[in-house]
Amino acid sequence: MATRGEDQDLVAQVANSLGKGKLTDTQKQVRVVPCFGWHPWFSHQIIQDDLASSDLSSTDSKRTHYKKVLTPSPDDEDFISALPDPKPLSQFISETRERLLAYPSALVGEIGLDRSFRLPNPWTQEEIKNRDKSLTPGSREGRSLSPYRVHMDHQKAVLRAQLHLAGELHRAVSIHSVQAHGVVFDVLKELWSGYERKRPSRRERTRRRSAELAHAGSDIEEDGKNHPPEPTGQPPLPFPPRICMHSYSGPPDPIKQFLKRENPSDVYFSFSSVINFSGPSAQKVIDTIKALPDDRVLIESDLHTAGPVMDDMLEEVARNICKLRGWPLHDGVQRFADNWKRFAHG
Fold it and tell me: Which domain of life is it from (predicted)?
């Protein structure tokens, strides 16, 4: 899952190298689902097109952009000069569209809003000297934090553009939300306006069920195998069909608005041990997990590395949620698998 500029090609490389493994007698096919998106922690590095000049590397253009999107507006010229040259939003969306088209199973993420994040201070010479060069550049890596945050209006503009793209290509999204669940919902509600679902009548439900059964029967060919349906050619939408509120840390009450029947997007909630089952908010998350419908619960590691530690974290959160909801472990893991397939692939 990509979060910033340095990640985009790396995610594609991983998908190319691990997503096309060959089946052998002793090894199962290796597969990954790539995700392309721009995280709110790095949203200041994106410039809205109505503010972009022809030369984004110019000192004046760069300064104007960062003084507008950061709050408080920075007067520290050294701080501004250490920031990367901003990338036009339209260019990023165009590049991401091409990546999503190249990977039909790819999702949009990680995107979202964050009220608490502060930009790190520029690198010191000592920090550069001692930096772990095995890490992908671009993250904080332990640097002290500045007083500067990304203006919420700018974060919303970057989020909205990516949600539009996900709707255009009918891809699911992973949304990061810290102290911003209400604002995220307001953005989604704005995009959903005019597309709300209407509850079908009993006659319509019966007719639809009959049609689904007939269609299912027609999919079974003479060879006895089920064949995947043909692409439907659905028109683009201004919102994604499915949404995951990842490592959701909010209280139970706000989930009701995300799960309203009329919302045209299906909203899921994922949980991780590293974020949700530690600290003073653990009880709040427990109450939230207990309040969710069975078919909207997902699990994740929320780690930046793969391997045994990630596997252990996934097992831990799976066991915790199964225990909280009273699910036998095997049944619960099957639910997580079914929910994931429905979220990721529809």
Answer: Eukaryota
Q: Whole-angstrom Cα distance, residue 181 to residue 277?
A: 19
Output the pLDDT for position 138. Answer: 92
The Cβ of residue 259 has, within 10 Å, a number of other Cβ atoms equal to 16
Report which DSSP code applies to 236.
P
Measured distance between the N- and C-terminal CA atoms of the chain, rounded to whole angstroms: 19
| Residue type (1 letter), 73 | S
CB 192 within 8 A of CB 265: yes
Pairing of β 242-245 and β 173-178: parallel
What does DSSP assign to residue 116?
Answer: S
The predicted pLDDT at position 29 comes to 58
Neighbours of 114 (CB within 10 A): 19
**Helix 89-102 and helix 152-169: axis angle, to 10°?**
30
Q: Are 257 and 181 in contact (CB under 8 A)?
A: no
Tokens of 156: 């919303």
139: which 2 tokens? 């993250």
Residue whose C-alpha is closest to residue 292's, from 319, 316, 264, 327? 327
What stretches of the chain adopt beta strand conformation (E)? 35-36, 46-47, 70-71, 87-88, 107-114, 149-150, 173-178, 242-245, 266-271, 297-299
CATH: 3.20.20.140, 3.90.1170.30, 3.40.50.720, 3.40.50.150. Which one for 5-123+135-196+236-345?
A: 3.20.20.140
User: Tokens 């689904």 identify what position?
Assistant: 212
Q: Is the pTM of this model over 0.85?
A: yes
Which residues on neighbouring strands pair with residue 268, listed in sequence order? Answer: 244
pLDDT at 208: 65
| 206 contact partners, CB below 8 Å, separation of at least 6 | none
Count CA within 13 A, CB hemisphere, residue 215. 9
Pairing between β-strand 149-150 and β-strand 70-71 as defined by DSSP bridges = antiparallel
Question: Residue written as tokens 């999503």?
Answer: 100
